[in-house]
Specification:
mainly beta; Methylamine Dehydrogenase, Chain H; four-stranded antiparallel β-sheet; 1 helix; 28 strands; 1% helix
Length: 309
């Protein structure tokens, strides 16, 4: 498991978080079985392998907002940036920008509410399929490991904050500014699943590694920006058809439980970060306990799944 603050990366080994990297601007993480990839706000990537941190010269000058470790041997990593481009990093070579993603006609409709550049906010993958969440601009999909791209059917809220795959062919989850949407056909159609959610402004979503119907999602009253938006965590055991708020042992959060702040590990243990506190659940999100107090606000957690690597 990887746990990151803005300037420190920790791995969970023998039940204890151990610092592995001290570097400014950590933004996103993806953990593999033998190596992991860390994206930075200055456009660089660090690969963690055999206990060693190996900086990769990507040649990217923009912030890396999302990262997907497609292959460990040979190394292949997809990077999503702000402004919205997708790059492929192969081994030690500089990252190459994927032209088919840049050629998408729908790019002209992507935007942000504040007028800044859109971003590839999250990436998710399963087998050869890759999904890129555009903030704001729905989800793009690739059936061939990022070589070619097209938009999903846009029957979901366009303001997507995180996309996640599941251990079931075709299953896809998206947490949006209007709660959770689910697809069972790689994004060709969508079902809006919001029953039981007290608020519908969604942020993070995470799926159990062996049960595609078991998931966590965070919601709040809005984007935040220093306000008390009452971030809440919910769990579902029926693919989001019904939701139950996580109350046992889980704290009240004033801000959002943000993108990349929740995860399931390979054993099905759930993890969630609220500011600088990491919480743990052994019963699929129903009850929680405080696990670790980080030295700063946690920006991301990531756990290794197979995902076809």
């Amino acid at each position: 498991m990887l746990i990151a603050t803005n300037n420190q990366l920790f791995t969970l080994e023998n039940g204890t978080p151990t610092q592995r990297l001290a570097i400014d601007g950590i933004r996103c993480l993806d953990e593999g079985v033998r190596c992991s990839a860390i994206g930075l706000t200055d456009g660089q990537v660090v690969v963690l392998a055999n206990g060693q941190a190996q900086p990769q010269a990507t040649g990217i000058g923009d912030p890396v907002e999302s990262i997907a470790l497609l292959s460990e041997e040979p190394l292949q990593v997809l990077l999503g940036t702000e402004p919205p481009h997708v790059y492929c990093l192969d081994g030690d070579e500089p990252a190459r920008r994927i032209e088919s993603f840049d050629a998408l006609e729908c790019r002209q409709s992507w935007y942000t509410p504040w007028g800044g550049p859109p971003a590839v906010r999250s990436l998710a993958h399963s087998g050869d399929w890759v999904f890129a969440d555009i903030h704001v601009g729905s989800i793009m999909r690739s059936p061939d490991r990022g070589a070619t791209w097209e938009p999903v059917t846009p029957d979901l809220h366009a303001d997507v904050h995180q996309v996640a795959t599941a251990p079931m062919e075709g299953r896809l989850y998206a947490n949006t500014a209007d709660a959770v949407f689910v697809s069972d056909d790689y994004g060709h159609s969508w079902d809006h699943r919001k029953e039981g959610l007290a608020s519908r402004y969604g942020r993070a979503v995470a799926v159990h590694p062996r049960d595609p119907d078991c998931l966590l999602a965070s919601v709040s009253k809005g984007p935040g920006h220093g306000r008390d938006v009452q971030g809440k965590l919910y769990f579902s055991h029926d693919a989001g058809r019904t939701w139950t708020q996580a109350l046992a042992g889980f704290p009240e959060a004033k801000g959002n439980i943000d993108t990349f702040h929740i995860a399931f590990d390979a054993e099905g243990i759930a993890w969630a970060a609220v500011e600088d506190q990491l919480y743990r659940s052994e019963d699929r999100g129903e009850s929680w306990s405080a696990f670790w107090h980080a030295p700063g606000a946690i920006v991301a957690v990531a756990c290794a799944h197979s995902n076809g690597i």
